[in-house]
Queue: 3 jobs
Job 1
Amino acid sequence: MKMRPLFFFMYVIILFILMLLWSKITPLIQIFSWIPNIAVLITFLAGHIIGRRFGILTGAYLGLIEDFMTGFFGFGLLSKTLTGFISGHFFRVNESYNQINFVYGLLTACFVNGMIYNGLYFYSEQEFSKTLAQFVAPETVYTLAMGFFIYYI
């Protein structure tokens, strides 16, 4: 897909505004300390609908924004770029659209993103199994539920 500069510029601005709004809305939908990861959801949808390259670019941009917002540089960029790559893997040009493909792809993308980001963030502080149970699994389930909600709207 050939990207037009104006489309890409508008896409970048819209994603930036969306991430700023999302950072203000998250306290309203937070359950304990778990929030759905909208960056993973947007990255997955971009890669799943448009293609692998676009998913990787979206993931890199959203990961960079997340790194600037959290002050924890590098891991957001790495995890969201890999999420974009995974979501592009579930993109098929001439196949019928399948809901199971969407569910497995989103589940895989959320889980890999959580393992990389939270696993590296809490690497020296606690055991990896505790990180999986405390942060990765609940965030994956919550993001998957939000993905179902967005998918069926």
Job 2
Amino acid sequence: MKKLELEGRLNLIKYRILDYTTDDSGNIDCFLDVFGDYVIYNEDRGKYYYWTGLLWHEDKGKKIELWVQTAMRMRRDLTLKKLKKLDDDDLSRRLEAHAKGCCNMRSIKAVLEGAKAQLSHSDKLFDRKPYLLNVLNGIIDLRDGSLRSHNRK
């Protein structure tokens, strides 16, 4: 994901930050708002994939986990910043406790596990159109030889 695009998504969640619930589902929603277009979960293979800009790449390392951590740090930092403007002490305490806890490994693992259902695709997603060939500078339509731009859909 490009830095400029990440900054745009950060602006999106800035306005929604207090709308997320203070539980795992709120963490999942925040992660999906930031990175959801760039991640899929292949239910047949039991693996996460991320979009490189050219193709879907199996996450053999911890890239998606790092993205979850990034989203949770964004959530924590933005929430703590917004708390200063709230008048409700009880709500502020609850939000602060959640914000501080959303970056722990239990929360990260819960997001990774919980997001699978919303990001789930089968092997059928890949190679649905066998006449399209992915190459470095685009996608060639083998029926007519035309070159298309890369597309994660």
Job 3
Amino acid sequence: MSDQLLLMLKTIGQVAIKEVLILLIRFRSVLYEIYLKLMLEKIGQIALKEVLILVIGFFVIKYLLKILKRAFDKSKRLDPMLHTFFINAFKIVFWTSLILIMLKTAGMDVTSFLAIFAAAGAAIALALKDSLGNFAGGILLMITRPFSKGGLR
């Protein structure tokens, strides 16, 4: 009788273990579905924020560049060649700022990007020290206009 009892307990234990494993697998799949739904919602919210920031940023940049262009056009002291140079420089700064804002909104740490930009800028400035000095001198000549057309006669 004890052998039959042990056999019966053994089969009951095996069935119980199978049922527990089946329940755990079902529970795991339910948890996975919940996790997946939450992640998709979070990704959707982040993507919506990013698209909204991009669209608003695009129009703000366009508006700011239009204001700068009007200001440069009204300026009589600034050479017209410098208008496009400054407009393009501001455009690069605005778009870089927008990208950094989008990265920050997505949850990324942008301080490392800023450090990389600063180090790259310093390296480029040191490597092109003489050329950048000549370039800055040319821009200063265009801004201050110490010479006039036909002034050497």
